Amino acid sequence: MYEEPYRWIEAVANRRTYLDDQFIQGNPLIAVSFARGILLLTVNRGTEKIYEIYDRIALGGMGHPADLEKLRYTLLDMAHVEGFQRSPSDVTASRLMKNGLAPVIKQAFEEIFKAPYITKVLLAEVGATQDRDHLFSINYDGMFEEQREFGVLVSSSSIRETLSQEWKAQGRPTSLQAAIEVSLRMWGISSLLQTDTPSPDEEEKGAVSAPTTSVATIPDKETIASRIRETLSRETLECVLLDRESGKMETYHTLCQAELQPLIPQSFVPVIER
Questions:
Q1: Fold for the domain defined by 4-266
Q2: pTM above the 0.85 mark?
């Protein structure tokens, strides 16, 4: 009887190790708040990862597509019920995260006889002004946090900390083109850092002798550009703008490839497309 709590703790620890390993090969997602709205950017291999949830709210995900779809429908149902029973202004990213996503994901993670959600989620809500923008990210264990101006989904907390410090050290984007350039650069950095991250199994086997630091070294500009060019030559760039200046209640706008091409810096464009 006394062993049961310890078995549960061990099972949860093993589950955490397994899930951490699943995200190393995933594609990061970047969200940037700027004067015009909120930009969400990632790349995909054929399956979309950014979706509209409500008039001013978007969802971005990293992980298993099937799990992301389950959570998306959970949020859609909750948002429309809230909007119908209360009012559209009561549908906020904060309510959806705290009352919708977090309890569901936490319960699935802690019930060791059921499969957890292999996904991390970011909710973005564009406000009437930039200081009212909200970005919420949630981990596979149900832990969530609110971020300002810059949000990211990556495989580990150390990479997220590195990107946050890099964001603070650079100038803020003032236009859509600048936001795309910054987001692509941040995506390139996070993709490279994830590639260099050892899997939990490798760490346990002693493959890494030096302790990991909380802040990793930022790759040089050409290495970042090379990773972006290589990725865009075989995968699709996915960008969504929550446009506060649209003049409409619905702010969600998917940027098509024709719109994106003039906005991508030439150093990031694959050679075959130039």
A1: Glutamine Phosphoribosylpyrophosphate, subunit 1, domain 1 (3.60.20)
A2: yes
